[in-house]
């Protein structure tokens, strides 16, 4: 069975780890392809940093700092302290010593002319993930967020997503723009991973700066609409709040309410030209199942909290179960 997951930050990586465990315990051989968001990527001190790819790589490779959800465990920060001592900015982004090695290797390979997809494959070789991780594109796409700035001419300015999130802690946003998306092409294997899958999963990642950015690469959303796979999503919103991150700040920017139902309807039923066939909401949002069903989405309420590997695996099993019940129904 071929399963393809669209994944962004920490929630997506934890979900993929649960999916890998669920499939490993199953009786059917399965291959998992993770299409990672690269619009969070940033140049820092001359190094290319790919947070969402690294979070999947470290989480599935066993190198993640589980408390932070990003960066390496047993990390030290000497290089960061030395850079700060030189007064070199940005000092607001936490680059650990172990993590730096990943960015050095990546930057060296990019500089030698290797595309991000081959760099990612090379880095993942060390970590033995048990899934294939591919970037959404090899081209440069960067999410910029428009915020208030009294000092700016029109009272607003655009900042890189990482500055918006890490330095500014997600202030009120007026627009979210995946810069470069229109000129980007899907990375090697991305369209095939969607069209040849049995199941495509929208992980519980930020709909605006993770899933939407992957879908913003021309051709990707069309591949999801057209695939013979069953497409199932997991709500990143539980009882009106995101599990983590700043989706509650960004969903209003695209005119979507901060509810599990609104996000499901934002993706839309494939039977009505949308992107998903099934949608999982938390038990606390079970009352929204009827109105989702009315839009053509097969919705189900299950526990969505990813508090540990066991709950992640159970959630992944629920997703696969929903996909197979939709598949049977469709046949
Ligand atoms: N998130 C923070 O809140 N503070 C940080 O200093 C920080 C550093 C960092 C370094 C490497 C990396 O791969 C991720 C890092 N993140 C940090 C998380 C990152 O901002 C987010 O995980 C994604 O960009 C959004 O999901």
CATH class of the largest domain: Alpha Beta
Radius of gyration: 19 Å
Quickly give the CATH architecture of the largest domain.
3-Layer(aba) Sandwich
Uncertain stretches of 5 or more adjacent residues = none
Strand order within the widest beta sheet:
5-2-1-9-10-13-14
Helix tally equals 13
Mean pLDDT: 96
What is the H/E order? EHEEEHHHHEEEHEHEHHEEEHHEHEH
Number of domains: 2
Helix content class: 25-40%
CATH fold type of the largest domain: Rossmann fold
Which class best fits the helix and strand makeup?
A: alpha/beta
User: Total number of β-strand segments?
Assistant: 14
| Largest sheet properties | 7 strands, parallel
Inertia-based shape: globular
Which percent band covers the strand fraction? Answer: 15-25%
CATH superfamily of the largest domain: CofD-like domains
Fold and architecture overview:
The chain folds into 2 domains: 2-137 and 183-330, 3-Layer(aba) Sandwich (Rossmann fold); 142-182, no CATH class. Strand 3 (42-44) and strand 4 form a beta hairpin. The mean pLDDT is 96. The strands form 4 sheets. The chain has a 7-stranded parallel beta sheet, sandwiched between helices. It has 13 helices and 14 strands. With 331 residues, the chain is α/β, with parallel strands linked by helices. Helix 1 packs across helix 13 (309-330). Residues 8-10, 40, 49, 51-52, 54-55, 70-71, 93-95, 99, 162, 165-166 line the site of ligand FO1.
């Amino acid at each position: 069975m071929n399963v393809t997951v669209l994944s962004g930050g920490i929630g997506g990586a934890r979900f993929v780890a649960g999916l890998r465990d669920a499939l490993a315990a199953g009786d059917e051989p399965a291959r998992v392809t993770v299409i990672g968001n690269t619009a969070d990527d940033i140049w820092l001190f001359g190094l290319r940093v790919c947070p969402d790819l690294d979070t999947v790589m470290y989480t599935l490779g066993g190198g993640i700092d589980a408390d932070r959800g990003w960066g390496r465990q047993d990390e030290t920060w000497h290089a960061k302290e030395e850079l700060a001592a030189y007064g070199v900015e940005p000092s607001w982004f936490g680059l650990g010593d172990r993590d730096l090695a990943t960015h050095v290797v990546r930057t060296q390979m990019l500089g030698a002319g290797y595309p991000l997809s081959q760099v990612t494959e090379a880095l993942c070789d060390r970590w033995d993930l048990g899934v294939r991780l591919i970037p959404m594109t090899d081209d440069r796409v960067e999410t910029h967020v428009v915020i208030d700035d009294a000092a700016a001419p029109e009272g607003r300015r655009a900042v890189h997503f990482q500055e918006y999130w890490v330095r500014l802690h997600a202030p009120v946003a007026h627009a979210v723009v995946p810069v470069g998306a229109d000129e980007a092409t899907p990375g090697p294997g991305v369209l095939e991973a969607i069209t040849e899958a049995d199941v495509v999963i929208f992980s519980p990642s930020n709909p605006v700066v993770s899933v939407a950015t992957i879908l913003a690469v021309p051709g990707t959303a069309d591949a999801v609409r057209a695939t013979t796979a069953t497409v199932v999503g997991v709500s990143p919103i539980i009882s009106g709040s995101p599990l983590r991150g700043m989706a509650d700040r960004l969903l209003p920017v695209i005119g979507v309410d901060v509810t599990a139902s609104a996000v499901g309807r934002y993706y839309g039923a494939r039977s009505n030209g949308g992107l998903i066939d099934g949608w999982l909401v938390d038990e606390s949002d079970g009352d929204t199942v009827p109105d989702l069903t009315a839009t053509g989405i097969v919705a189900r309420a299950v526990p969505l909290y990813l508090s540990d590997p066991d709950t992640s695996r159970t959630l992944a099993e629920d997703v696969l179960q929903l996909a197979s019940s939709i598949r049977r129904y469709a046949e």
